[in-house]
Amino acid sequence: MKNRRNYYRVLHVQPDAPKEIIRSSYRTMMQRMRMHPDLGGDDNNAAIINEAYATLTNPRHRSVYDESRQSKESTAAYRKSAFRTSVQQDKCAFCRFSYEREEDTPADTLCVNCQSPLFMTRQAPVDECDRRSNPRMPNSQSLSFRTRWPQNEAYSGHADDISLLGMKFITAKDLDLGQVVKIDSQILTAVARVMRSERQGSKWGVGVQFLSLHFVQSQGSFVTARV
């Protein structure tokens, strides 16, 4: 089996979980946590969740998957003990889920628990000759954010200033200084710390500094390099 995903982690269940628990977790993620595309969820994440659910609820497929996973875990454990040189225990900046960070861990790796980016991934610079063919990063866009994990309903906001270091957005939710939030939009997902929160009429202007950042799609250069 070529797929290296841990389906049990994808569905947030234990390897010995019965089908009823797997089905309940799946429904919670797709419906209550609104991960289904029809409810605003990401198509790729939903495809992975469906793939995991289809495998673990089919006894024959699950048996084959478990055998393959155990074989891979044994091989990986041997390789790590014999060859790895630098492994760092770390935690997700948002949900604090523990993970092992190795030298070859991909920069765009997401937390298996809350799907937050674990690292800062910078956009590749655009050559001068390519500037006209690449659209600039829009500074104004809708976003959603969560202040804790798990949180079924996200708060909404509207960004009016985005950079590689952070962003400013307008929201009806008052946030505390130093609070860590998970931000999702059409172009990026990030974990950020609130650096300022100022009342603007009936809403709040919030400035955040990125702790981790992942671009959902490439949109060219940022318009600004400040927050």
Structure description:
The protein is an alpha+beta fold. The strands form two sheets. A six-stranded antiparallel beta barrel has the order 3-4-5-8-7-6. It has a two-stranded antiparallel ribbon with strand order 1-2. The protein is about 25% helix and about 25% strand. Mean pLDDT is about 80; it is low at about 125-135 and about 220-225. It has helices spanning about 5-10, 20-30, 45-55, 60-85; strands at about 85-90, 100, 140-145, 155-160, 165-170, 180-185, 190-200, 205-215.
Placed side by side, the strands forming the largest sheet appear as: 3-4-5-8-7-6
CATH class of the largest domain: Mainly Beta
Unreliable residue runs: 123-136, 218-227
Q: How many individual β-strands?
A: 8
Report the helical percentage.
25-40%
Q: Tally the helices: what do you get?
A: 4
Overall structural domain count: 2
User: Radius of gyration from the CA trace?
Assistant: 20 Å
Indicate the proportion of strand residues. 25-35%
CATH topology of the largest domain: Thrombin, subunit H
H and E order = HHHHEEEEEEEE
Q: Give the second-level CATH assignment, the architecture of the largest domain.
A: Beta Barrel
Biggest sheet: strands, sense, closure?
A: 6 strands, antiparallel, barrel
Structural class: alpha+beta
The CATH superfamily label of the largest domain reads: predicted glycosyltransferase like domains
Q: How confident is the prediction overall: mean pLDDT? A: 82
Distance, first to last CA: 45 Å
Choose one word for the global shape: globular
